[in-house]
Amino acid sequence: MVVTGYRDLALLKINVLLHDPLNKSFLIEQLGSQFRDKHREIAKIFLHNVLGETSLHAAGLREELEKIVVEADSIASSFDRWVLKTTRTTRWTTRWPEGSYIYYEYFHNIFEPHLRVKLGKSPSDSDINNVVKELNEILINVDKLIKVETFPESELLIYNTLYTLLEPVWYSKGLSPSLADTRTPTHTIFDHLYASVSVSNMLLNGKSGIDGFYVIIDFPGIQRFVNAGRKAGDIWASSWLLSNLIWSINEYFMNIYGYDVVVSPTPRLNPYTLRTLLSRLLNLEDQGYYLITDLDNKIKESKDLKDTIQKIIEFFEKIYGIEKGGRTGIQRMWLQPLIPATTTLLIPRIKLNGVQSLETEDDVARKIDECFVEAWKKIVEFVESKLTSGKSVLHQIMGGLLKSVKNILDIPFQGINIAVVRIADVYEAIKKCIIYGEKDICEELGLKINLQSPQQIGIELEKLAKSLIWHVLMTRSTSLARIDKYGKFYNYMLRPFWTYSGGQLNPVDERLMGFSGDWIPCSLCGQEPAYIVLRKDVKIPNQVAFRIETFRIEDVEKLLTITGVEDRVSAQSLIPYVFKPGEALGPYCILKRSLYISLRDHLEILSTDDVALSAISEFLKKLNWLENLKVKADMKGLKGEDIEYLFTAPSDVSRIIKKPFKDIYALAVHSNINYEDFVKKITEYLVETCRESGVKPEDLLNNIVSVIGVSKNSSIYSLIKTLAENREINLNNLCQFLSLRTQYAIVKGDADNIGKIMMGEMFGKIDEYKEIIVESIKNNGKPVGSEEVYKYLDEGYGNAAKIIKALGLKSLPLSPAMHQALSLSLMLTAISDYRIVREGNGFLIYSGGDDVLAFLPVETAINTVIKLREEFYSDGFKKINNIPVASSILTGRSFSIRFANILDVMSTEIFNTIEYLEKRAKKARWSISGKSSQSGKFVCEKDTLVVTSSRSGVGALFPLKISIDLKQDDNVKEILDLIREILRETPLLLLTVLSSNIPEDYYKLVKDYENYMDSNTLYSFFEYVLKRNVKLKSTALSESVLAKLYGIFSNIKDLNVCIRGDKSTAIQEYVKFILVLRGVL
Q1: d(C-alpha 673, C-alpha 499), whole Å
Q2: Which of 631, 692, 959, 1067 has the largest count of CB atoms under 10 Å?
Q3: What is the residue range of 1017's domain?
Q4: Does residue 817 sit in the same domain as residue 902?
């Protein structure tokens, strides 16, 4: 065994992580022909200084471990090694000239190499010294900590701290990453370093060279589990529960073997990694969740480590661009479900003191299952602890309820799928495939070797096998795990609620059969028996002509008896805000609701009604109208307390108000007013207050525009502002923007073809790389040493193309460094998704970087979706503090917006949202037709927005493609830009200058002939309809508005969408869009 303990493991991984200087590519110009030896010396000095005064400072690395550093470096950059081959010369390889390099300052997108960005300036010695100083001070304090407190992982905690902070410290100083290699400028030095340390996990068992376990853990049926809920909090809790269950499994292996064992999602720049580190530094053991609620107190209790912890948090605050505010910014990040329900680990096969040795796949699966069950129990205990320690009646209700089903909740709702692959066996199979050409094995590995003999390829075949190991593991592990000679697949099981005994089925708990001797399914998930049932009781109050749905008294009494609440009067007043008449909840759905109630003081949005009202609430806050609304409420037969309750963020509502969640229906019942009448009454009060406020129309317009996201640079906005200033648009019209919103938007987005990307099928062709990158390097690079470096670069790329062809690969193989870049891009996208949704006053349900689900107010939904799509692209590069750090994934990202009512069945509407995404948006094909052509110029497939409403059967489609293809003509780019512009501006147009009767007038004209008309004819009818539906009295001003609109629509009229043979023009889709929007805004 090469690694004999945690000290060895920590030293090895630190040496792998820092084997290259962080400013590597910048050093080429400075060091010239001495770069090769000098850059290694610089890396050693950096490592030495970072570890200064720690217990690892003077420790050397044994020869065996030095070899692992070299091997990890080689495997991590497999493609680079093919291009930059420096061994013997054969007809397929070229010796790179000794002492020769290329200085190059551009970072290319790994998917679209024609997209490039110039790196920032070279870091100065002072910059690097500052990084060393920051890291060293923290590591010294961590070293002191492990000497006085017991940490099983000992010195590995020093490494884990360094792993977590290396990038954040660098980027927080505004420093640009260098390239890993200037000859393949598609990934950064950080991608390479983190890839190297991940690869090292395969090299720790000295006996066989390549060893360990590649593991995929998956929680199946995620949509079924997450979407089972009635409240926004139910859905969020399901998602957060899954993220934290999966991450808790990761944590176990991270703390034992190092954070790098997690392959996906990346631990790099990951807020959950920060929480894991802080939990270890604060020695919280299984109390890590308390950082979400009690971070400041935990920091204060840490005494000697207080300043260190605060400094670590500040680095992450800088790179995330979040406010400090008592650390609430970081705590909110931990409340976001950013961890997917699938994770991948690379577990080394080594023995460490005090740690259970994992020798077989059964050992690995058993340990993972144990971790999963333990993680489940910790979450249940955390929720119960937060509720039972709370003093409010609400906490007592849910705490007592949860405690009563604790015995049932000891077992998770379902298990997980576990795929375990033995890396050593896969490596041996790769060698058999490429050396002996065994077809059956090659097919199992997904390789199609075209070699007639092993000698055809000009590099050592064993090294080639090592270069391919990562690609095969990434692309084939799920199928390989099902083949006995490579690994094993472990299927999940649902938690049983019944046992079979004596010829009959019996419940695991008699209380699940407490309803007239029978069981009732949970009304949320339908998969578990209900534990509490709150049946409806319909009442018609005296002198009131409407029905009220309430609870049966005996069911409420039974519930309160279970919870043990003493203050029954208060409890009864709270129940309508927590439960709905007719609800039946099983133990696991009770846990979900208990979870978000336990964290209610830390969540910015708590209910669907919160979402619906969040934009209007922010609008009233900016205008400073809320206080006036509260004061005058009594004059309108309303309560000021209710106005505050409805239009104030949950965290800002005064504690005098006892209602726990915004619930318009419950408030109407409590006020003894019919729900529809209540909504109408509040809306009229808002509009009347607006009209009497004395606000100038142009000022009100500015506030409306800032909410819905119309650019103040747009020509439409400028025109409407002028109309408002001249009182052509009056205050009465603008005040109609205000209402008691009862609708909200469900937004679902998903990256197109992400599966192919993760399998390495969407990387560029080697010929494209050669054509674009080599040419760019020739034109913008600077040779150092031999002037013939460009000739060798040409030959190197040519050799790589031959190797890829010989291996039967269609594109570049997925290397560790490429995977690091891809995973980091997804993590940064997930973080930006949260930021964008929050800016839109929405509620993030989950984001994994590829897919996203969020609830948004109707006012901000369209603009937020456009921003989510634009940020996914990010001009080709993900940035931190405006520093490019990773390639954006240049595929489309399709979206579905569904406007739903707060009284709709949420799970049904989420299902419909996803259905429209999968069956409409992701099936769309966009093209531009000429005046007479039937098949036009192709624009894009998928990458589409579909907009629907629960109140209509209409769906409108629009392309979301960003103009990233430099070969695309200006006409296509203009059309795509105009589509996004008109999407953002339509709500404003309908509020101010356009009548919502456009659809009726349009359909009366075209009748049943719409699908037989060409785009020009349809547009002529549409122009006529527009002209009839401008709401301005002045003909001249109407003409000005129409000229602007004609300028937009005449440019997009030839844009067509086709789904399974059904064609429609952008104009037809826009009419549908108005049809949807007018019932919402």
Answers
A1: 48
A2: 959
A3: 926-938+968-1072
A4: yes
- Full 3-state SS string of 570-610: HHHHHHHHHCCCCCEECHHHHHHHHHHHHCCCCCCCCCHHH
What does 978-992 look like in DSSP terms, one character per residue? HHHHHHHHHHHHHHH
* pLDDT > 70 fraction of the chain, expressed in percent and rounded: 94
Least-confidence region, from 125-139, 438-452, 521-535: 438-452
Whether residue 576 is contained in a domain is answered as: yes
Residue 240 CA, distance from chain mean position: 12
Classified as helix, coil or strand, 483 is coil
Number of domains composing the chain = 4
Residue 382 lies in a domain: no
Looking at the structure, do residues 840 and 889 belong to the same domain, yes or no?
yes
487: which DSSP letter?
Answer: E
Q: Is the CB of residue 780 less than 8 Å from the CB of residue 104?
A: yes
Contact 153, 273 (CB under 8 A): no
822: CATH: 3.30.70.270
- Specify whether 822 is located in the same domain as 890: yes
Task: Clarify whether residues 689 and 750 are in a common domain.
Answer: no
Q: Are 276 and 254 in contact (CB under 8 A)?
A: yes
Q: What are phi and psi of 654, to 5 degrees?
A: -65, 145
The amino acid sitting at 268 is R
The answer to whether position 404 is within a domain reads no
Mean of the per-residue pLDDT values for the chain? 91
Q: 621-646 burial string, b = 16+ CB within 10 Å, else e?
A: eebebbeebbebbeeeebeebbbbbb
592 and 617 share one domain: no
User: What is 764-798 written as a DSSP string?
Assistant: PPHHHHIIIIIHHHHHH-EEES-TTHHHHHHHHHH
pLDDT digits (tens, 9 = 90+) for 978-1017: 999 999 999 999 999 999 999 999 999 998 888 889 899 9
pLDDT at 933 over 50: no
**How would residue 654 be classed by pLDDT, with cut points 50, 70 and 90?**
low
Write the pLDDT tens digit of every residue in 1046-1063.
999 999 999 999 999 999
Are 755 and 891 in a shared domain?
yes
Q: Which residue has the tokens 């006409």?
A: 971
Residue that the structure tokens 């409805």 belong to: 646
Summarize pLDDT for 716-741 with one digit per residue, the tens. 999 999 999 999 998 999 999 999 99
| Cβ atoms within 10 Å, residue 1023 | 17
In a domain, 266, yes or no: no
| Residue 845 DSSP SS3 | strand
Which pLDDT score is estimated for 19?
Answer: 97
Whole-prediction pTM: 0.95
**Of 76-80, 335-339, 430-434, 851-855, minimum mean pLDDT range:** 76-80
The verdict on 883 and 750 lying in the same domain is yes
